[in-house]
Specification:
The chain is an all-alpha fold. The protein contains 9 helices and no strands.
């Protein structure tokens, strides 16, 4: 089902919804994006290729808490299934900064998701560095 939505062009539409003046629309768009980034690396790539992750990161840092929480889920989900190249793109998009921006929350589940995303970034970055050392 997710793949059909992605192939149908929903990702750019969701990006537009992330900048809606309505909080509920931004929250639902971020939730839908988090479902896509929980999918395959191909689905994650659609979010990255359409430059939607930069919007997700921006909203994770700047929006109200409900939208920020959904954006953090989207980022964390992406870190879980991302390829090495995608991890680099997430880092370039300031995903770590976005995940760190919510660490002051008292909401345990959101905190756990942010920490899981950071852990994924750190582990996969370490693996990337290991790959570079092997190449040298």
């Amino acid at each position: 089902m997710t793949q059909l939505a992605v192939e149908g062009g929903v990702v750019p539409q969701l990006g537009g919804m992330l900048i809606s003046p309505k909080v509920a629309v931004r929250k639902e768009a971020a939730w839908a994006i988090s479902n896509i980034t929980a999918g395959t690396s191909i689905q994650i790539q659609h979010v990255l290729s359409n430059d939607i992750m930069r919007l997700v990161v921006k909203q994770a840092i700047e929006d109200n808490f409900e939208v920020r929480r959904e954006c953090v889920w989207a980022i964390s989900n992406a870190t879980s299934g991302a390829t090495s190249d995608q991890i680099q793109k997430l880092i370039d998009a300031q995903a770590a900064e976005a995940l760190c921006s919510i660490l002051s929350t008292n909401e345990a589940r959101t905190l756990a998701i942010a920490l899981e995303g950071l852990d994924n970034l750190f582990k996969k970055t370490r693996n990337l560095l290991g790959e570079v050392n092997i190449m040298i």
